Amino acid sequence: MFIGSLVSDGFAWEQLRPSQLTSGSQIRKAFRSVVSTPRSWTVRVRANGKEVSLGAIVGSEGWILTKASQLEGQVTCELATAERHEAEIIGVDGKLDLALIKINAKNLPTVKWQSTSDPKVGQWLVTPGLSMSPVSVGVLSVARRAIKPQPGVLGVRIDDAEGGALVKQVMRESGAEEAGLKPGDVIMNVAGENIENARALSNFVEKFLPGDRVRVKVLRENEEITAIVILTDPQMLIYDRLREMQKKMGGALSRRKSGFTEVLQHDAVLRPEDCGGVIVNLNGQAIGLNIARAGRTKSFAIPADHVIPMIEKLKLKKYAPYNPVKDAKAQTVSTDMSS
User: Fold this and answer.
1) Is residue 47 pLDDT above 70, yes or no?
2) How confident is the model at residue 117 (pLDDT cuts 50, 70, 90)?
3) Buried-most residue among 55, 81, 193, 287 (CB within 10 A)?
């Protein structure tokens, strides 16, 4: 027995058996025709050999837009043709978490944007990858809205110490744990800023966003050690049960998922490393750039009319070349939450 065809905006999809509706791969397969062209201007971005994001070809001479906070080290791009190229990071816009990178290639297919109007709530949206089937399929959940910024945290419980802040506890799965900080360390300097006490540390770190990388100098058993810490979303440290439930039900969330002036919220399930590429309507036109997975069925895309103006600015290097490790010139984030 077959159910009726999926029909939307004049498109008819292959019929699916009821049993196929529980298979994500079968549902994505039904939308292959939508991404047949968009996949050609989608790339897979790797940093130090690890998949970190998708990207969108925005200029035929090798210009690619992607998610900035995922990038570090040696960056490479894989095209839908399976070609691989080393990439240079040209610059970033920290407010939108966008990065422009460049590969040595010519005559590449480029994104076709739809920026004159937003999709309607409930409209199908599709995320292309490199394969024939899309990465994900979903619908627009909420009309464009602002996402309030959250401060980043190191992921440590601290107390005052002579010459800095004493680490009393390192939180599980925090940036501090990943960087190797330990109880007993005394944090003396963060991002070039000398730390006098615990309060000074908290106040300074609040200037940064989750996903930012900061250089931390600590004193450990009379030895000075430097570590790069990726700041964590405070909510993911507070709600241990929520984090564990998220893993079981849908996987990890993006490190940077707040502080956007406007986003389109949709329910397509993305991995954090599947952000950075476009999301398209059923005509295969890019209506935005996926920027973060923020919940089990909550993902954000920067609308096309915010993305497009940034491309030429970044090409002209109006923004400084990207340095993933933040310094003391971080822009203060407006927030009512303490770190």
Assistant:
1) yes
2) very high
3) 55
